[in-house]
Amino acid sequence: MQKREDNNNLLKTLKRPRQDSFSDPPQKQFIEKPLSFQTSISNTFRSQILQNGDAKAFWCFPSLRFDIDNNKEIFFESPTFSTGNGDKWNILLWPCKTSSTIGIFVQMEVSEENFTYKKSATVYFEAYFTIGNKLERKITLNLNHVFSFPHRDSGFDNFIKHSEYLQYLNKPTVFEITVCPARPHEESKEVTGYNGIINEGTTCYINSLLQTLYFLNYFRKAVYAMPTTLKDQDRLPLALQMIFYHLQFCNTPASTRELLTSFGWNSDQWNVQHDVQEFNCILSDHLENKMKGTPAEGTYTKLFVGKMESFIKCKNVNFTSSRTENFTDIQLNVKGCDDIYNSFDKYIEIESLTGDNKYEAEGFGLQDAEKGVMFLELPPVLQLQLKRFEYDYYCDKMVKLNHKYSFYDDIDLNKYVKTQGDWKYSLLSILVHKGNAVTGHYFSYISPELNGKWYIFNDDSVDRVLDSQAKSSSLGGDFVELEVNENGFVKEIITKNETCAYMLVYIKTDMKNIILQDLVQEDIPEHLKYIFDSENKRREDEIKQKALKDSLIAIHLLSFDIVQDYGFPGITIYDNDFYGYEKFSVNSGSRALFDIKKGLKGYDLESEIKKHVSSNIKLWVFIPGYKNWQFRPLDLNDTLVRQLTNRCVYIETQEPVFEIINGQWKFIEEIIKSPSSQGTEILEDESNEPEKIFLFFKWYTWDGIPNIKLIKAESITQCYDIDDLRKYLYKFKTNKNEDFSGKMRVYIEKSLENFQNPNDLNITVIEKYENFEVTFATRSPINSTDKIRLDNGDIIIGEEVLDFIPSDYITAKQHLENLYQNIHINAAYYNKYHNYGFESYSYQILNIASEGYFLKLNIKLQDSQNELKQQIANIISKTQPISLDQIVLFYNENTHSNNMIPLPDIDNITYGKKTCKTVSDILKLTSSVFYDILPYPSNLIEKNNLVFFSYVNEKFALIKQHYKIIDKNQIRKTIETLIDDPQDKKLSGPKIINPIIPVNPINSFLPYSPSSPKDNTNGSSSETIVYYLLNHPQNAIIKELSINDPLQSYISNPNYIICYRTISALEEKLMKTQHKLYILTYKKGSNIFSSEIMYFNDKITCKDLISTLSKNFEEKARIMLLVQNPYADRIEIKPIRPLEDSENYFFEKYPENHIGIELSCSYKNELKIKET
Length: 1172
Known about the structure:
- The protein is an alpha+beta fold.
- The chain contains 29 helices and 60 strands.
- Among the domains are: 45-182, Apoptosis, Tumor Necrosis Factor Receptor Associated Protein 2, Chain A (Sandwich), CATH 2.60.210; 301-522, Alpha-Beta Complex (Cathepsin B, Chain A); 548-667, Ubiquitin-like (UB roll), CATH 3.10.20; 692-776 and 787-820, Ubiquitin-like (UB roll) (Roll), CATH 3.10.20; 830-940, Ubiquitin-like (UB roll); 1077-1171, no CATH class.
- The strands form 15 sheets. Strands 14, 19, 22, 23, 24, 25, 26 and 29 form an eight-stranded mixed beta sheet that branches.
- Strand 37 and strand 38 form a beta hairpin.
- Helix 7 crosses helix 15 (526-551).
- GO terms for molecular function: cysteine-type deubiquitinase activity.
- Residues 195-509 form the USP domain.
- It comes from Stentor coeruleus.
- This is Ubiquitinyl hydrolase 1.
């Protein structure tokens, strides 16, 4: 609904916005017509159906004061008005609904025969009062209500309070009511008997066409007749059958996902909107081929194919040339035509071929002739595309023609068809486009039975629509909307309309009974129901499985069965890729997986596990990894989601819990529980037990190679010193209760990180001769220098001290440190230090050493940045020597962006609050490292300016790239600075050969182009270097540079490209005698550009220039005038309009010396269906 001007901001916020508005602002005209303020109610009421199907009504009362004062029982009922779906409404007004208020209601007419019908709608109520000499809107309310037979009306008892507005009620009062019926979606079949189709992205154009094809029953029967199975490689016929079957027999909207997939499209292509007529042609061709050799063969020809004859007839000699061809649709001009008959008249209009356009008749020479087409036969299903879109050459873009264009329910085309017959047609479907040439939405109006009953099919929504509404809302042209102005007049606001018919489908009237004949059970293959039910069941199962999975939390479980013999630091491997093995979370051999419902608490998990374990259990929570696993008890009263995010559960028990089945750890189910032990017992009250601590025990041996194994996990109680730990270790190693008589070194691998040295494992070494008092963390939370404190989850490692120590012997701590330190890290190439339009130095190197694009480095956590760079250099230097100073490292702070941040140098000890000296420090910032290689050491580049410039060929394509370091203090130097180095003066490139003038039919204006080479016959090699300035990314020539131009003006802008090329003596001569023209060749709709220079006589005309430039291209080329357009910090070369085909001298009229050659469009998202 169009917003009216109003100074009341509050009322503006309550005003319902226009639902079908687009980016272009509406164009308004105001035509004022008075509402007759008479006592007759019928003369003071006016209504209209809006374009989107809503209804608006205006009801004026000259005065309500008399009725309030003298006739308190009276109420008024308005005339009936309709919404676009055909529902009928009226307004009920009670001047004294209560003793102090005016009540207003909206009522939907529902007959007793249709008592089950219901419609949800939003209704907006507005009241205007005469204040002074003006009408002002004072009240705005709205409601949502489901209208039905028992609940036909809804409104407000206290819409207007007498006490507040009584003084205005003796003057004209206007009530504006807007009814907005809700569109049915899931319930469309129940409401209308027809189903919608889900929009899977921007697939509305497919949906509107499929609905039309579905109601061609003859076509639907043919689709059903195509033999299909679930094993078909080409799924398109089956997918179309499934959609039609769903629309016919199901009560929910159909999906086109299977059909889109059968096209070979990915999800990105689902979100690219195409032209519905183009899609119709492609789908028709594809389906017609699939129907060959099946009972459906020939269906397309029978339904959609007509014949036309193109002819040329000479006026003065007896010669006629004609050609007969088939067609499946007719494209009718909308521009310059008022209705469908005007378009057909124009289609068969005779064109005279006279004068310069005479026809070359075989055997008669050039002759005056007439050219035209005539229809021989029209198809039973006539598809008419209205040419609503055209290319505007002045605006250089596609535009949509939205003016009014009339079409009719029934059309008689006999006058346009040569063959005798009854060529009358009835309208079945209107495919509507709402929007502009850039974006929009498709939907369709369809009369399935050609009985005057119309329905709107808008994706998954289907609703009834009035016959008049279907036509009027799709004709195009300006739309008139009513509003009240302050003088008591109704304003007709003429608004720009972007909704109009784009494709019309007619059925030959005398064949409608054949084409629309109802399908019987025999027309539907028996196997199709089985396939449909199977696919539906599969999809339902997938949905259920996904819903179930989403409702569960996956918990990783460990017990001693799983960690026994574990031979690495900590108790589990890491959940990352640094160590070259499968991550903990995906390695089924390193943990068991248990699913449980989200929202449950610790005691719920304990209860579930007790169903599988007969003995007492205790559950611990920890973080997987080599260190800092933070072992602690599971809180039985807290939620699992809160406690177990990125954490695991260890089950402490005295019995085996898991076994390996098919490579996965599963609960041992055959445990027989005693009657007194059915998984319901609880742990004894720990307050009465002696203090315990849960520890892991490992044993280390050396047999020429290091070997460490986890041998026990148990809670211990009596442990007073290290010697007690030695006893436990020996007992668990030998399963004997004997004292250990040898020499044992003990290591305590802590479950918590050492924050003083976070880059190493937290391992304490206790030599064979040392003994310390042991205390538990539960008893003594404070560290002491003469005591060893143990925490739950700590690991005690035993190592027998050898009498003879081999030279290559390493201790348990050294072995664990080696396992922890040796990692794999990814280093990927990132072209950070490059200039627009240039290949970076690193890119040139990696073209040779391609393995450098992605490196997997074996490195230690304690290695420095230089050692990391050295590994990169060792790989790259196999083909191109580089130094460490040329390598720069980066990391990505935000994985959702491409913003690379340099890692701090070695000299920078900290970066923010994080150190960055070692690989371990780097991994705290990022899991992957990126690198670039510079042509010079980074410190040299930082202190100076690195200048890029290129040697290019005659098409300004790169031949060789140069880099030069220029002192920042001397940056004011000129272009000559680039060649002041003797080494730089010897710029290498391919052998330059002198060109000759190309053959050209315009002999008096011969151009010169360096792109037409030929060896110089005299062997001359005199050449000159000329510098140019190009822009990025077009690579278009901005200007020729003088060696005295200041260098700073160009190198400070990354969008400028400095280049040079060699000029032969012949071209140098032409530069002095002819005009230079900078040419930019580009393909419209792509980023393909090419520049060159050509030379022409200064008297060449625009017409001759167009001919000269165009003839070099087989495809259609437009010669465009270009302009240099400054934009932000760059210069863009933009076409402004085509060069006119005139006799004007080009260089006199356009001295700018820039011209463009525009080749035909190329589209990235080409619409096509892949062949299987």
